[in-house]
Design brief:
The structure holds 2 protein chains of 2 kinds. Chain A is α/β, with parallel strands linked by helices. Chain A folds into 2 domains: 2-168 and 250-320, Alpha-Beta Barrel (TIM Barrel); 189-244, no CATH class. Helix content of chain A is 31%, strand content 21%. In chain A, the strands form 3 sheets. In chain A, strands 1-2-3-4-5-6-7-14 form an 8-stranded parallel beta barrel, surrounded by 6 helices. In chain A, strands 8-9-10 form a 3-stranded antiparallel beta sheet, with no helix packed on it. Chain A has a two-stranded antiparallel sheet with strand order 11-12. In chain A, a hairpin with a 2-residue loop joins strand 9 and strand 10. The relative contact order of chain A is 0.15. The mean pLDDT of chain A is 93. Chain B is α+β, with helices and mostly antiparallel strands. Chain B is 44% helix and 15% strand. Chain B is built from 7 helices and 5 strands, in the order H-H-E-E-E-E-H-H-E-H-H-H. Chain B has helices at 5-11, 16-33, 89-97, 102-107, 117-128, 134-139, 146-161, and strands at residues 49-53, 58-63, 68-73, 83-87, 112-115. The radius of gyration of chain B is 15 Å and the shape is globular. The chains are: A alpha/beta, B alpha+beta.
């Protein structure tokens, strides 16, 4: 199985390639991708150099154009797609059906992947995208169990990529409005979830208080592992006791199930984290690369060292091993 | 690893001008090695950033628009910066080099960030996107002794980061 790795800067990109990534995914420095954070992402020239570097090392480059186009401003996304094609990106990761149609029509030779943001999670939806826009791969939303994936795989006519490590969303990818509700900005339209412009941290006696817009998201006790200030991972007063209403501040780690994922028909494993630093990229990519060729017992030991890099310093297998309804 | 207390205490009594002059020299050297250090900051270049080593009695205020660096004694720097990051000196230096993951250090509470989060995020990404190697970059100030100072710097770095689980190479 291929290992698909994140990069938010050229330095992180080189780390991913050097650590053994089969492909690196990245985005332009604007709202055309879902990690539109200040100081992050690639200029056209940086992407040209990154693709050349990757190619010299036998690594592919995928460009994420996975936000939804704003009516009247489609040209921003069309230009980004044309530039990525001209720079010879190996694949474009798209979420907006309109952009998929545009790429399929104007750049028919370009390999097209369906972003997790497109929320294509059933056989009909995926096959529609394959037939209509010639999608070659679908990144499945983190809503499916491994058994679900095994049922879907033989019925669809494209490759399957799944997230195996990193930040975990609230399982409504491409449709989540929590960030919009609190800040007016979303990963779907603006490329930012819980934007830093609306986030604040302050020390209140021994507690670290995180806030997003007008909302208090969490109060971390002294020494308690902290998380991102997102509504989905907020700790709220529910029936007079503080509890995580949506989900705990944890990260995804399903690398312990890679044999099952392979048997289910998955052909590529994706690491989340374009917003993370190059140290994270280097550590996670090199460890997961080793884990892919290690036996189950060694794999567990290898993966344990990544827990410290995770949100809340805890990990979960999420919906892949869903035991709830 | 914390900065040795025996070395930190004298800093509280040394003339600030001397400390600032030495810091400014190192800062200018870094800018010479990496002229595009603050390029990724974009509009946040106009902000002021405080780096607060929790094991030193000093605060370092960086103004990328200058570019310049100021040194003040703690805690008299509250209003001098738009955004602040606080943590042990060696971790701050490791962040400068991109050798530790800032989010992981934040999750583990080794690092705290206050003020304009967007500006600090831009600064984090700007530093992370630059290939800073402090022993290599700063030892060049030592002229013919650069290899010796470089080796010493690398040795100190290795010892300082040896116990940090989220550091690499």
């Amino acid at each position: 199985m291929e290992l698909i790795c994140p990069a938010g800067t050229p330095a992180a990109f080189r780390e991913a390639v050097d650590a053994g990534a089969d492909a690196v995914y990245c985005g332009f420095r604007d709202e055309t991708n879902a990690r539109n954070f200040p100081g992050l992402n690639f200029s056209r020239e940086e992407l040209r150099e990154a693709i050349a570097y990757a190619r010299r090392h036998g690594t592919q480059t995928f460009v994420a154009l996975n936000t939804f186009m704003r009516a009247g401003d489609e040209e921003i996304w069309y230009r980004a797609a044309a530039d990525a094609v001209a720079l010879k990106a190996d694949g474009l990761i798209l979420a907006d059906f309109g952009l998929m149609a545009h790429v399929a029509e104007r750049h028919p030779e370009q390999r097209l992947h369906v972003s997790v943001q497109a929320s294509a999670s059933n056989v009909d939806a995926i096959n529609f995208l394959v037939e209509a826009f010639h999608a070659k791969r679908v990144v499945l939303p983190r809503t499916l169990t491994i058994a679900d994936i095994a049922r879907i795989a033989p019925q669809i006519r494209c490759e399957i990529e799944v997230f195996v490590f990193g930040g975990l969303c609230v399982m409504a990818e491409g449709r989540c409005s929590l960030s919009s509700y609190a800040t007016g900005k979303s990963p779907n339209m603006n490329g930012v979830c819980s934007p830093a412009s609306h986030a604040r941290y302050r020390q209140e006696r021994t507690e670290l208080v995180s806030e997003l817009g007008d909302y208090t998201i969490n109060r971390f006790l002294a020494g308690e592992a902290a998380g991102y200030p997102t509504l989905c991972k907020g700790r709220f007063d529910i029936a007079d006791s503080p509890a995580y209403a949506f989900e705990d501040p944890v990260s995804l780690d399903v690398m312990g199930e890679i044999d099952a994922l392979s048997a289910a028909g998955v052909s590529a494993l994706k690491i989340e984290g374009r917003q993370r630093g190059k140290a994270y990229v280097a550590e996670v990519v090199s460890t997961l690369k080793k884990a892919l060729s290690a036996g189950p017992e060694q794999r567990t030991a290898l993966l344990m060292r990544l827990r410290g890099l995770s949100e809340g310093q805890k990990t979960t297998s999420g919906a892949y091993e869903k035991r709830w309804r | 690893m914390e900065f040795p207390r025996a070395l930190a205490i004298p800093l509280a009594y040394m003339p600030l001008a001397a400390i600032e002059r030495a810091t400014g020299l190192l800062f200018q050297r870094l800018l010479k090695e990496h002229p595009d250090l603050f390029e990724r900051l974009g509009e946040y270049k106009a902000k002021r950033f405080a780096f607060l080593p929790s094991d030193l009695p000093l605060a370092f205020i960086v103004e990328p628009a200058g570019p310049s660096i100021r040194v003040t004694r703690k805690p008299a720097m509250q209003d001098l910066a738009d955004a602040s990051v606080e943590g042990p000196l060696f971790l701050l230096l490791a962040l400068l080099e991109g050798r530790c993951d800032a989010d992981a250090l934040f999750f583990s509470r080794d690092l705290s960030v206050t003020g304009d989060m967007e500006a600090m995020l831009a600064m984090r990404n700007a530093l992370d996107g630059t290939d800073i190697d402090l022993p290599r970059d700063l030892s060049r100030l030592a002229g013919p002794l650069a290899p010796l100072f470089g080796r010493m710097g690398r040795d100190i770095r290795r010892r300082a980061l040896n116990n940090e689980t989220s550091s690499w190479n």
